[in-house]
Design brief:
Blueprint lengths: L3 E6 L6 E5 L2 H11 L2 E2 L4 E3 L7 H17 L3 E4 L10 H21 L2 H9 L20
Parallel strand pairs: 1-5
Antiparallel strand pairs: 1-2, 2-4, 3-4
Helix pairs in contact: 1-2, 3-4
Amino acid sequence: MREYVTITKDPRTDLVLAIGGTDKAADILQRTDGFLSTAAGAYDGFPNGLPIEQQRLRTTTASHSLRAAGHSVHLDPALNTLSTPSGERDAALRYLAQLGERVAAAGSGSKVAGVLTRSPRRSPGCCPSPGKLSPRT
């Protein structure tokens, strides 16, 4: 049976907490990711005032460390550096819906190809221009 750990931000205190798991999970959190033990069995993650990007980086790293050790982890999406913020996801979904409508209205194969090869308008929340993309190594 896998031990389950939840990493989230307490809305009342704004502290990052890791709840659940075993002593092994607590050791991983404390040694590798800077979590501090509390009496309640949760782990107060970071010093007050740590920037949100640092919180996100550390919690994402913690979740990967725990998974590598065999724990099942729920990481709050707001703390996950690999998740897409809702606003960006909503913009992408709107763009894809509009693209689908244009493809459906195009009719012929050459018109569909024209729709699919046209670059998206540069607007906030839309895809970056190809020149801004970094190549994968």
